[in-house]
Amino acid sequence: MKNWIDLLYVIDFISVGILLSAVVLNTLKRLESCIKAYIFNSWLLSILVFFVAIKTGNLHLYIAAFLTLATKGILIPMFLSKIVRQMKVTRTVEPYLSNSLSLTISGILVTIVYTSLREGILVTGFSVHVLKISIAVALIGLFIMITRRKAITQVLGLLFMENGLFLAGFSLTFGMPIIIELGILFDMLMGVIILGVFIVQIRRNFSSVDLDSLTTLKG
Q1: Is the pTM value of this prediction over 0.70?
Q2: In the Cβ-directed half-sphere of 162, how many Cα atoms lie within 13 Å?
Q3: Strand positions, DSSP E, the chain
């Protein structure tokens, strides 16, 4: 029992790191740094799943941890880094909102989530903080998508939001069935590849992936 309580503290600590890596994205201007933040977020997510697998001894959670690391922590970041190199752009265009204001709004989103779920929700095998953090990460990812001008940073916002939703589903079900996890990870990987191809083609044809510049193409 004591070991399980200690493990909950470890899971809480890891989930806080997941939240902080999402919040920090609001302060980054270099695309490489944004990708590194996503790598850190995904590695922490896979480590969290791994610790739960150790405690439960559930084989499919070990597989889920490995797949999360392989796809979200390695394959997708490698593909995003390749896109950035092909774009030959290292800095993002300034967001619609200043970094300080974006950081403030992210803090407000976290506060709203914790205030709304103040009484807590029964989550099998998890501290209630994990569910709160997962919802906050999903909202911050959505906020990044809305407030960024470059298509690549909007993709990163989508990926952060997906990580938050993945963690929420995992915490609520104590590990989704392996076939569902495989489907989610495969769909996410294919989606990023397709979006990456579109971004590269837009860059080649219009010499920009700034969405403000692309709006001038509307008839």
Answers
A1: yes
A2: 21
A3: none
Q: Who contacts 213 (Cβ-Cβ below 8 Å, separation ≥6)?
A: 206
Q: What is the pLDDT of residue 210?
A: 53
- Cβ-contact 210, 149 below 8 angstroms: yes
- For the cut 60, the answer to whether the pLDDT of residue 206 exceeds it is no
Take residue 159 and report the two structure tokens written for it.
């990926």
Q: Which residues contact 173 (CB under 8 A, 6 or more apart)?
A: 124
**In the structure encoding, which two tokens stand for residue 108, read together?**
């407000």
Contact predicate 105/95, CB 8 Å:
no
Helical residues (DSSP H) of the chain, grouped into ranges? 2-24, 31-56, 59-70, 76-87, 99-116, 128-147, 151-173, 178-206, 211-214
Distance between CA 156 and CA 112 in Å, rounded?
A: 23
CA distances in angstroms from 85 to 27, 71, 213, listed in the order given:
22, 20, 21
Integer Cα distance of 149 and 173 in angstroms:
36
